[in-house]
């Protein structure tokens, strides 16, 4: 039996890896199931982009109603996003990246998934990181 936190993490991952057209369709599908989702594109040098990635995740989550503008909600989202960044940090350190952040909220569960392409000469590497928090409804 799959837990709600696992379901929400899988949905965040789908949002991070889908294209823009599919993203709009998934928003409608998950909204009907009571799950709020959003995604935002990110890119640049990973070392100088961490603050921008965190800010982008926070703004997208607020703008799409996944979290409220209050300390507890914002802290949970930033904590989950930082966990995801920590997971990708070693592989992407100092390199240029491009990709997407997917965020999903179902009830008390919120997950942030970061999916990135890493530019390394002519070799394209991919990396994924995911973080989860629980917060009051």
UniProtKB/TrEMBL annotation:
InterPro entries for the chain: Regulatory_HutP, Regulatory_HutP_sf
A GO term, aspect molecular function: RNA binding
Keywords in alphabetical order: Activator, RNA-binding, Transcription, Transcription regulation
Domain of life: Bacteria
Oligomer and partners: Homohexamer.
Family, similarity comment: Belongs to the HutP family.
Protein name according to UniProt: Hut operon positive regulatory protein
């Amino acid at each position: 039996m799959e837990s709600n936190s696992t379901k929400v993490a899988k949905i965040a991952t789908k949002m991070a890896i889908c294209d823009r057209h599919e993203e709009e369709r998934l928003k409608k599908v998950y909204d009907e199931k009571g799950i709020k989702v959003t995604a935002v594109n990110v890119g640049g040098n990973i070392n100088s982009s961490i603050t921008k990635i965190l800010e982008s995740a926070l703004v997208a989550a607020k703008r799409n109603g996944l979290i409220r503008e209050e300390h507890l909600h914002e802290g949970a989202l930033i904590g989950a996003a930082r966990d995801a960044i920590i997971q990708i940090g070693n592989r992407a350190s100092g390199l240029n990246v491009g990709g997407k952040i997917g965020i999903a909220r179902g009830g008390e569960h919120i997950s942030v998934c970061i999916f990135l392409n890493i530019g390394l000469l002519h070799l394209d590497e991919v990396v994924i990181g995911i973080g989860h928090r629980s917060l009051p409804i």
